[in-house]
Amino acid sequence: MKIVTLLTSISVITLALLSGFFPLQSTEPAHSEIKKIKTQSVERTKEEWRKILSPEQYRILREAGTERPNGKVYLEFQQHGPGTYYCAGCDAELFSSKEKFDSHCGWPSFYDPSNAKNVKTSVDYHLGYARTEVLCSICDGHLGHVFTGEGFDTPTDKRYCINGTVLKFIPLAAVDAKKKKTRKGEK
Length: 187
Ligand SMILES: [Zn+2]
Hints:
Layout: H1 2-27, H2 31-39, H3 46-52, H4 55-61, H5 72-79, E1 83-87, E2 93-96, E3 109-110, E4 119-124, E5 131-136, E6 142-148, E7 158-162, E8 167-171, H6 172-186
Antiparallel strand pairs: 1-2, 1-8, 3-7, 4-5, 5-6, 6-7
């Protein structure tokens, strides 16, 4: 009698597990979708990156390269008014003109990211000593380095030394105009 009861409960549990398990499995999104939902990260193959980036952007973002200091990009950067800087690899918001300051180092400098969750750091030894590398946390692209304690008169005493080549600048005026247009369209 006891064995019958035991067997019945085992089959009930098995049935419950099966009926609960199979629908779950069939409605589960594909692996790539899960990744997208969980991390919102952008992953591409080398070939895909080469298609969407210029050779110089590829060298910096994907191979941790560094642009020439005081180049054309830096001169343009100095001329920028208010606006936001996005990642050239994935369009994530990284920095804004509010945190921009002139460090005279020849590369775009910010004292903080504008959207901290999109910027991460890691230590690299490419020059034989430890430096803190700055990366886009969405596409893992190399952006530059961050240095601390240099005595700049900024709220953080940090210098995010960023390659301008891998930043997409959108002036505030353009963003405002787009918002106005959208509002008009809604009416
Ligand atoms: Zn990115």
